[in-house]
Amino acid sequence: MESAATESLAITQSLEQFLLALTISLSIATLSKTAPFLRQVPYTLLLVMVGMALAFVDVRLINLSPELILEIFLPPLLFEAAWNLSWRKLQIYWFPIALFAIVGVIVAIVGVAWPLHQWGELEWGIALIVGAALSATDPVSVVALFKELGASKKLSTLMEGESLFNDGVAVVAFTLLVGIPLGTSDLELSSTLATFLTVVGVGAACGLLLGFSVSFLTQRFDLPFVEQSLTLVSAYGAYLLGETLGGSGVIAVVVTGIILGNFGSRIGMNPRTRLIVSVFWEFAAFLVNSVIFLLIGDEIGVQGLGDHLTLILIAIGAVLVARFLGVLVLSAVSNRAAQSQISLKEQTVLWWGGLRGSVSIAVALSVPAAIGARQEIIDIVFGVVLFTLLVQGLTTQFVLKALDLIGDQPQRREYAEFIARREALREVLKRLQNPEDYPDVEAELFRYKQDLVAGELSSVEDKLQTLLQDYPQLREVARQNFDQALLDIEAETYADLIQSGRLEENLTPVLINLGDPQET
């Protein structure tokens, strides 16, 4: 009886801690979006600072076991990024992304581990774990800044694609390297490489199986919230399936997300459902990022950072140098081998924008308690993450402006607003074509409203034409909207035919792979 009461009290305390963390994190994140003087500061940095303040007054939020950290936080973060990554753009830049995500991770691990071992006198096993944790880049705030300032799609795709895949490679590398201090693995090259390929292969296979299965399943019905729930189950299910079968759960989640975002959502979801699912995952990533960065600050001990300041400084310098060399050399290889045309300015942004964040923290917190240097690893990783958020995160926009890489995002935003107005006014005018639908309204008032809406619609169309004349590059946006509208119509038609029983076979939209004449 007493044990049951103790267990009930523990559950109540855990729930209260979770609700407190959730309330604080969402409040701070919301404040950072609404208060003008805080908009220039990444909300993740504000959450870290609040967490540190809570830790300073000895308020501890959530105590999660290391084993649960990766399972809870990684799937939604990775799935949301994979869901929104364009397969077409990924195909264009696959070579540099693969170089950055695979070779770049190796460069980062060795480039961080060697100085920590040589000058910081860390054991090789511990130094390699730190290197693996810090090899994962986190572009959340940087890509958001790209979109706000109008940086090129090329930069965003390179940054997002690299981060998405190097997260998977980094976590696999970490899982293998963490066994060295525990005595369960060694650095024998052939066995390590074989294990790595097996883990990645099994994870990718699980992702393919689950991604295509759910894609064809959602084509059989049109229930938005069920389809949304299936994506959530897919994210966590892919991770658990991959890990259970001896593969990489991270790779499984990434592959599942890419398939569902680029294939499943096209053949099995109507546009409204896709919007609902996209908004849901945007919120999920926002929520997880908010909680994890608050926990970062709550876990950081100022005393621990001070005790390991030398190691943190060495790690910061190593991360910057390794990232610089990696981007410079791998960009040169990609430019020569695949004509990627990554300019020196773009390389500079890729270097300086290579922040470390939630994945690095989740990996560091998942270090088993059996490793004696666990707190040392956490302090070093936290220190580097703080530096990248505070210094690099706050200065990336100035680097973009100094290098003249600001794009035409304000014009694109204005164009999108005009398009939305035109569609809305057209719909209103269509409703006003039938006076009999409004028998209680005077004819004179009805005609006045018709003229008013028609005049406003004409004004919006004139402004649209002027904008297109002043900024011809916006016609590319118009073409993309046109392609997407045609694709939506085709996919919706197939889904309707299947649901009505007139079509048995799952058909992939023909237009999904048809290129534009200008591209050929």
Short description:
The chain is mainly alpha-helical and 520 residues long.
Instruction: Let me know the average pLDDT.
Output: 81
Strand content: under 5%
Q: What name does CATH use for the topology of the largest domain? A: Na+/H+ antiporter like fold
Q: What coarse outline follows from CA principal-axis ratios? A: globular
Question: What is the distance, rounded to the nearest whole angstrom, between the alpha carbons of the first and last residues?
Answer: 75 Å
- Structural class comes to mainly alpha
CATH architecture of the largest domain: Up-down Bundle
From the alpha carbons, calculate the radius of gyration and give it in angstroms. Answer: 26 Å
Query: How many DSSP helices?
Result: 21
According to DSSP, the number of beta strands is: 0
SSE order, one letter for each helix or strand: HHHHHHHHHHHHHHHHHHHHH
Write down the CATH class of the largest domain.
Mainly Alpha
| Count of individual domains | 2
Q: Which percent bin holds the helix content?
A: over 70%
> Main β-sheet, in a few words?
none
Task: Set out the fold topology.
Elements: H1 2-34, H2 43-56, H3 66-83, H4 87-92, H5 94-118, H6 124-133, H7 140-149, H8 153-177, H9 179-182, H10 189-218, H11 224-244, H12 249-268, H13 271-299, H14 302-307, H15 309-338, H16 344-352, H17 358-365, H18 374-402, H19 409-431, H20 443-470, H21 474-499
Helix pairs in contact: 1-2, 1-13, 2-13, 3-11, 3-12, 3-13, 3-17, 5-6, 5-8, 5-15, 6-8, 6-18, 7-8, 8-10, 8-12, 10-11, 10-12, 11-12, 11-13, 15-16, 15-18, 17-18, 19-20
